[in-house]
């Protein structure tokens, strides 16, 4: 099941030696304490990273770069008592970990994204299903009662688990307020999730059409909508955003643009534009990254793409403004960021996932999967804690008019 994790790849001694030298030169400058085996340590001091099998660790990095780094963790070849702290240091130094001379040669050593992950209509279905159709029961183990899989908005920090559901509903209320959703609003939602936003919009009196490519999500969303007594106000369709029809007073899309792929950003934002009635509002919640890092890494095949979100790419705010300016009549008129809230959301999910380890195993997910998912949640949390990642709610209107 895990062909690239079961055993380290066969790599030449020279390539492995070069990778080891580069990694050591990078790590020795960081505020980390990196221990190799039982008797060697480097770094300036800080969070502890323990490499249990240095030979396998360096062979994987020599073969696959950061993909190898992730696979090495899945295989148990390295670990950290405080995984988020270690990954936060790495995220804070992401732009300088690789020497500028090697950055310029990125195309020679970085793996390229496979053509099979393109987000064509068929490709998008396959990519979305690989993540969101894993198991509704799996997601229910670490999400709160709203089954909301995007950043919450808290009233204060540190956040606590019992407050997560209300923080998720607060986030949704902010989105619906930005979109001016009320009684009689015709709302198009691109990316259903498990139905909470559609439910809250219908409770305001809106009529909702919600689109998803995940059959698992559609089925549970319909169950939740029926239980709320709102089946007559909400239609959940297994439908690509490119296939949407009709005109709506508002379009809302929460953390879905990340799955679109740069090639199709113009198509995605034009779909929002085309579906809006005159005077309508589009609201997008998006995870963003710095523009220069997006440009440098946009063609690189990453561990997250291989194992978590195939075909995904985080946009920058500059990229969104460039695409909408060039391909649509939509303009960003308001932008609210709350990355620290996502870090707290991810911490709560990660802690809950760890608490539910036995239940995750009972669903049939093995240790490699659990280590993979733990790394994914910690990696994401570290991105927001370091400031490398942000999450924003964007209000877009035609020609910037409110």
Brief overview:
The chain is of the alpha/beta class.
How would you characterize the overall build of this protein?
The model has no long low-confidence stretch (mean pLDDT 94). This protein has 402 residues and is an alpha/beta fold. The chain has 2 domains: 3-109, no CATH class; 117-398, Rossmann fold. The strands form 2 sheets. A 7-stranded mixed sheet has the order 7-6-5-8-9-11-10, sandwiched between helices. The protein is globular. The protein contains 19 helices and 11 strands. It is 47% helix and 16% strand.
H/E series, N to C?
HHEEEHHEHHHHHHEHEHEEHEHHHEHHHE
Q: Whole-number average pLDDT?
A: 94
Query: What spatial order of strands do you see in the largest sheet?
Result: 7-6-5-8-9-11-10
Choose one word for the global shape: globular
Radius of gyration: 22 Å
Note the quaternary state here: single chain
CATH architecture assignment name of the largest domain: 3-Layer(aba) Sandwich
Number of helical elements: 19
Query: Which structural class should the secondary elements be placed in?
Result: alpha/beta
| Annotation, overall tally of beta strands | 11
The CATH class of the largest domain? Alpha Beta
CATH fold-type name of the largest domain: Rossmann fold
The percent range for strand residues is 15-25%
Major sheet description:
7 strands, mixed
Number of spatially distinct domains:
2
Distance linking N and C termini: 52 Å
Q: CATH superfamily assignment of the largest domain? A: Vaccinia Virus protein VP39
